[in-house]
Amino acid sequence: MTKELNIGIVGLGTVGSGVIKSIEKNRDYFKNNYDVVFNILGISANSKSKERSFNASNYKWFDNPLDIIDEKNIDTVIELIGGEDGLAYDLAINSLKNDKSFITANKALISKHGEELSILTEKHKNFFGFEASVAGGIPIIKTLKESIILNEIREIYAILNGTSNYILSSMSKLKISFDDALKNAKDKGYAESDPTLDINGEDSAHKLSILNSIIFSEIPSFNSIHIRGIENIELVDHNHSSEFGYNIRLIALSVITDNGVYKEVTPMLVDKDSSLGRVDEANNIIKIIGQESGDVVLEGQGAGEGPTASSVISDLIDCAIGSKLHLFSKSHSELSNNIDKISSGERPYYLRVFLKDQKGSMSSLTKFLSDSNISLDKIIQKDENSNNENKFKPVIMITYPVKKDEIDSLIDILSNSDIVSSEPLHMPILVKG
Ligand SMILES: NC(=O)c1ccc[n+]([C@@H]2O[C@H](COP(=O)([O-])OP(=O)(O)OC[C@H]3O[C@@H](n4cnc5c(N)ncnc54)[C@H](OP(=O)(O)O)[C@@H]3O)[C@@H](O)[C@H]2O)c1
User: CA 248 to CA 165: how far, in whole Å?
Assistant: First the structure.
């Protein structure tokens, strides 16, 4: 028997418009392949009069988005506004309490309120879809929940933010500054007017916390992730990383250690020829290392109207055909509250300082390194790109594997000394890319 889903959509921007156009365009496909019909019974956004890329007058408009939940005939609410609290949160909570199915692309909402959403979804037996919240068009949530979850996953390495990947890859390819790369990203529509959460690593951490909740059966915990962004990376860092055979990428990683799961979002040096090192432009990649499956790599467009809308549609189909999976991998009572910050093991680091061009600076630097128990595998000092009217010259070092605490304490010492200009930059090197 044909299954009909009566939908209300709040948020008609990039993703919301894409979802409506896809539903309009693929009506026959959904009917013929899934025996499903999607009826859009209500739409809402900020401005009724705004020009849209679909004909909004074909649909019933709700001035107050929350009224969509009270519409008896609507059984599925799709939230495509964004934001961890406010309207998005109210829509989610009230939809679930009113026994509506709920679909969203909002990673911040799930990362912050995952526990409450999981409890409510179980209590009210709702469908809750969030495929589009991580890596846009890459079907990672479904793949993890349905196909890979029986494997014991020990490690995950991912590029989850298209804006920062665009900036990093274009800096090294075009030999341009961070600011110029950011401007290009904005001009091409890859960066929003305020790209703070993309650049400072928080967007990637929201997404990583969602993946962790499925892979490691835990309540999403943004606060247990060590986060560093890409703001301090300069062209000189790309040039030297490249000479050593690496690209710089913003990596989100979770690794099982003897003490628990270590989680981090940080710029890293990754082998140029590795799967992660090759990812260019605004693309995303997720590499999962499973006990049984070995390496599984999913790569594709992490954002944009088409890819993201297709993930929302995939949730709609699952909702229509009656998928009964938990919100995360297990029921709420089986999820752990893994919020401890566990330290990483030893890793080699890239370290760049702008060193004062005066007698004795290099020997002071060497002493700081040996006092911190850090030995060097490689060191380069060049005259290029010196800053501050040639009073400081870049010194690039690759360390032997060291603990994160050791490198952090060296950075503190260097930052407080007068032999270097601005704060030194350090990035771990990913040995398995
Ligand atoms: N864009 C992507 O590629 C992408 C990828 C993955 C996930 N996402 C997620 O998808 C969600 C939507 O992103 P988007 O890029 O489509 O955003 P967007 O283009 O900025 O659209 C946001 C929509 O929300 C509406 N809105 C904002 N505040 C509202 C309010 N207080 N009341 C009613 N409506 C309100 C806006 O109304 P008006 O149109 O009237 O201004 C607009 O239609 C976000 O959670 C985002 O993180 C986006």
Answer: 9
pLDDT of 385 over the 60 cut: no
When pLDDT is averaged across residues 122-137 and rounded to a whole number, the result is 94
pLDDT one-digit tens code per residue, 153-173: 889 999 999 999 999 999 999
pTM here? 0.94
Ligand 1 pocket: which of 80, 91, 138, 140 to mutate (most atoms within 8 A of CB) = 80
Of the candidates 107, 112, 145, 207, the residue annotated as catalytic is 207
Is 420's C-beta closer than 6 angstroms to any atom of ligand 1? no
Task: Give the HSE-up count for residue 193: Cα atoms under 13 Å, Cβ half-sphere.
Answer: 0
Alpha-carbon span 322 to 400, nearest angstrom: 53
Point out the ligand 1 atom lying closest to the alpha carbon of residue 133.
7
DSSP symbols for 116-132? HHHHHHHHHT--EE-GG
249-304 tens-digit pLDDT: 999 999 998 888 999 999 999 999 999 999 999 999 999 998 887 889 999 998 88
- Using the mean position of ligand 1's atoms as its centre, give its distance from the Cα of residue 106 in Å: 9
Q: Dump pLDDT digits (tens) for 355-384.
A: 998 888 999 999 999 999 899 999 988 766
Task: Give me the domains of the chain, ranges plus CATH numbers.
Answer: 3-133 (3.40.50.720), 140-302+327-334 (3.30.360.10), 349-430 (3.30.70.260)
Instruction: Assess whether 391 carries a catalytic annotation.
Output: no
